[in-house]
Structure formats: C-alpha cells, structure tokens
Amino acid sequence: MKANTHPNYVDCTVTCGCGNSFETKANVQELKIEICNVCHPFYTGNQKFVDAAGRVDRFKRKFAKKSAKTSQES
C-alpha cells in the first residue's frame, strides 16, 4: 500500500435521534443519524410516518396540478 493515501480509521460513536447510541469504526469520531435499527419501522414492525419538511404535501400538490390538467384536456 502507498503511504499517506488512506484516511484514519478511528472509533466512532453513532447517535440516533431516538437516543440510541453505539460504537463502530469510521473516518470520523462522531456521527448523528435520524433513524436507526431501534426506531426504524421495518425492524420494529410499527408503522411510523416520517414526513421530512413537508415532502408528502409537496408531492400531493404537484400531483393534483398534473391530474387537474389532464382532466381539463379530456
């Protein structure tokens, strides 16, 4: 291997928004994430709706505009 080409591999603390944290190895010492295996709906079986910054509402408005145009053209 060439010297000084690879980043440092250090212990990393990963902290989730739900409060769960665990240790792993990474290029940074600390990571903050939104969803982990403890709170993710796929692993918990609970259907938890996560809407980040109104994306669903924005999609519905956009889709409503397109469907209104196609119904007027008919």
Structure description:
This protein has 74 residues and is of the alpha+beta class. It has one domain. It is built from two helices and three strands, in the order βββαα. The protein has helices spanning 41-44, 55-73; strands spanning 10-16, 21-26, 30-33. A three-stranded mixed beta sheet has the order 2-1-3, with no helix packed on it. The model has no long low-confidence stretch (mean pLDDT 81). Pfam families: Ribosomal_L31 (PF01197). Keywords: Metal-binding, Ribonucleoprotein, Ribosomal protein, RNA-binding, rRNA-binding, Zinc. Zn(2+) binds at residues 16, 18, 36, 39. Belongs to the bacterial ribosomal protein bL31 family. Type A subfamily.
Helical/strand content category: alpha+beta
Rounded mean pLDDT is 81
Portion of residues in helices? 25-40%
In DSSP terms (H or I, runs of 4 or more residues), the helix count works out at: 2
The biggest beta sheet, please?
A: 3 strands, mixed
| Overall geometric form | elongated
Strand content: 15-25%
Order of helices and strands: EEEHH
Poorly predicted regions are: none
Q: What is the gyration radius calculated from CA atoms?
A: 21 Å
Number of β-strand runs:
3
Number of individual domains: 1
Organism: Saltatorellus ferox
Subunit structure: Part of the 50S ribosomal subunit.
Function: Binds the 23S rRNA.
GO molecular function: metal ion binding; rRNA binding; structural constituent of ribosome
